[in-house]
Specification:
- The chain is mainly α.
- It has one domain (47-423): Glycosyltransferase (Alpha/alpha barrel), CATH 1.50.10.10.
- The chain contains 16 helices and seven strands.
- Strands 3-4-5 form a three-stranded antiparallel beta sheet.
């Protein structure tokens, strides 16, 4: 073209920089709506509906419309025949008072603590009586609710008003509470209702990871505030959930992040306090996440529009694949969604993921990080026990422990995964 060598060099340098910038933007901005529209095909961004597949949208709607008295979640009762879901929910509704005044009485070692203990004892006694006469429901070793429910509805500060006998331990606990209150007070002052506080600029940040949902720090802190006995702060957070948590957003959210932050946070708050507002919110949110499973294999895509139900894979994920650490980090929360709603669809969705993973080969002993939600095959054989894979293995062992060690399938998958160094 008649260009000098130095001019060709500058031109090639500019071109390589432009290409690097484009690919860098695609990698570092996976949740950008514009990038999704640019790099994803129209068919990939639309939900797949199959007539007989486990991810059928019609199947989801049919389950959601099914009368509650005809539904009992699979895998939610022990082999010995524990209480029915309705009995459990009634016992959960007998919650301790969480008002500031009641907390002060408990801290003072007054009669409120004794009344709370007596109420809880009556609740457990009534539940045990109901167990003797109510044995209906599907039997499975997926999840045992009996011992888990004994942890529910505990007073905020536990036994002895949260006062350990060791003065040094008490001093450390008070310091942790002081740090929590410092962080909470500054979040409330500078970023109330936003998803997070940027400490250097003292600004609230929403971001686009949660699809327009707000208050991620509030939801994430509910159980911590309650356990620490910071009841003024807890009541402020609960009031915000009642009045300001709007789930009718039309944004594009990470299925994984919404599940662990919002679904997990609301579930733990409900189990600790028995407040119906947390249960109602988490049930509404759970329904909004189901369309992500509308794929030929039932493996959910990583991104979902909470309003339309449209889902797609991350633009940077290999060949439109789903990520192990995301679709494999759902079953703790989804099992409890089935427990509370008396609708087995949530448990069925996550157990279908396990079934598929058990059918396909683990190329290097561990589960690869990228799986096609269309074909059900590994997209590549890259494995990791760090990012992209870590929480899947965590959830397997946690599921086994949560089930009072009856979830043998999770145990086998956890111990069956091993790294064969000779393959590398």
């Amino acid at each position: 073209m008649g260009l000098r060598l130095s001019q060709k060099f500058v031109f090639l340098l500019f071109l390589s920089g432009l290409v690097t910038l484009c690919f860098g933007a695609l990698f570092f901005l996976p949740d950008s709506v514009r990038l999704k529209r640019m790099f994803l095909s129209k068919t990939e961004s639309q939900p797949v509906t199959v007539g007989s597949g486990s991810g059928s949208e019609n199947d989801a709607r049919e389950h959601l419309k099914r009368p509650k008295d005809q539904e009992h979640p699979r895998g939610m009762t022990s082999a010995k025949g524990e209480t029915s879901s309705s009995t459990k929910l009634k016992s959960l509704s007998r919650k301790p008072s969480v008002s500031h005044e009641a907390t002060e009485e408990r801290l003072a070692g007054g009669k409120a603590q004794e009344d709370l203990t007596l109420t809880r004892s009556k609740t457990e006694s009534a539940s045990e009586k109901a167990t003797a006469s109510d044995h209906h429901g599907a039997n499975s070793d997926t999840f045992t609710y009996a011992k888990f429910k004994r942890c529910l509805l505990k007073p905020p500060l536990g036994r002895d008003n949260g006062k350990p006998s060791d003065p040094k331990t008490n001093e450390r606990r008070e310091k942790v509470k002081e740090m929590m209150k410092f962080a909470w007070d500054n979040y409330k002052r500078y970023a109330w209702g936003k998803n997070e506080l940027r400490p250097l600029t003292r600004n609230g940040h929403i971001g686009n990871m949660f699809g327009g949902l707000r208050g991620a720090s509030i939801i994430d802190s509910l159980d911590t505030l309650y356990i620490m006995g910071l009841m003024d702060e807890y009541n402020d957070a609960k009031e915000w959930v009642q009045t300001s948590l709007d789930l009718n957003s039309n944004g594009e959210a990470s299925l994984f992040e919404v599940n662990i932050r919002y679904v997990g946070g609301l579930l733990s708050a409900y189990y600790l306090t028995g407040e119906e507002v947390f249960k109602n919110k988490v049930m509404e949110l759970g329904e909004k996440l189901l369309p992500a499973f509308n794929t030929p294999t039932g493996i959910p895509r990583g991104v979902i529009n909470l309003g339309s139900g449209t889902s797609w894979s991350w633009g940077w994920a290999s060949a439109g694949s789903s990520i192990l650490a995301e679709f494999g980090t759902l079953h703790l929360e989804f099992v409890h969604l089935s427990e509370l709603s008396r609708n087995p669809i949530y448990t069925e969705k996550v157990m279908n993921i396990r079934k598929l993973l058990n059918k396909i080969e683990k190329p290097h002993g561990l589960y690869p990080n990228f799986l096609s939600p269309v074909s059900g095959n590994w997209v590549q054989h890259h494995v990791s026990i760090g990012g992209l894979g870590d929480s899947f293995y965590e959830y397997l062992i946690k599921s086994f422990l949560m089930s009072d060690k009856t979830d043998d399938d999770a145990k086998k998958m956890y111990y069956g995964a091993h790294w064969r160094y000779g393959d590398f």
